């Protein structure tokens, strides 16, 4: 799998293929953290606003990763770097202002965002040919990080201010 093509009049931006997978991981966790901030037991207007920003950022990261893999090159690398920094700012604000935010999930989000940004930056200076092996390894690492982070998001969202868990209602087929 070769990641990168030349465009007329432009240098090809070829970050390693794992960068798109890292963006997917960050997008999944960011969307989950944002959704939890919106509907969590301790949600307030500030948490809901930051949560909406985190959901939007997460969905954009998922879409960006898909477009990069589909085109075989890094799409809008400077904008992606700026978006990664904006996502880090939203995550930091959520972690410090929203009491029902999972610190584990925010840590995974930050780690994946920083790795993705570093991969984009590396690709700008050192174009990569990519490879299936790197893509598979990235998928495994992201799965190992994202799965427990998503579980911690649910736990944090259903924990009340006194430390008790809010009941999760089951609808039994409805």
Automatic annotation (TrEMBL):
Membrane-spanning ranges: 17-43, 49-67, 79-97, 103-124, 131-151
Domain of life: Bacteria
Source organism of this protein record: Microbacterium jejuense
Protein name per UniProt: Uncharacterized protein
Keywords: Membrane, Transmembrane, Transmembrane helix
């Amino acid at each position: 799998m070769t990641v990168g093509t030349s465009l007329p009049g432009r240098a090809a931006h070829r970050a390693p293929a794992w960068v798109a997978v890292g963006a997917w991981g960050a997008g999944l966790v960011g969307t989950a953290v944002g959704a939890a901030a919106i509907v969590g037991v301790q949600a307030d207007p500030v948490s809901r606003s930051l949560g909406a920003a985190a959901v939007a950022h997460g969905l954009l990261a998922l879409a960006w990763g898909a477009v990069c893999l589909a085109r075989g090159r890094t799409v809008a690398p400077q904008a992606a770097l700026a978006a990664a920094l904006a996502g880090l700012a939203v995550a930091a604000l959520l972690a410090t202002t929203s009491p029902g935010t999972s610190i584990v999930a925010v840590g995974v989000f930050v780690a994946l965002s920083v790795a993705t940004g570093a991969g984009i930056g590396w690709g700008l200076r050192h174009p990569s040919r990519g490879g299936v092996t790197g893509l598979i390894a990235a998928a495994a690492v992201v799965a190992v990080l994202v799965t427990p982070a998503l579980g911690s998001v649910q736990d944090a969202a259903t924990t009340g201010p006194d430390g008790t868990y809010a009941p999760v209602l089951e609808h039994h087929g409805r």
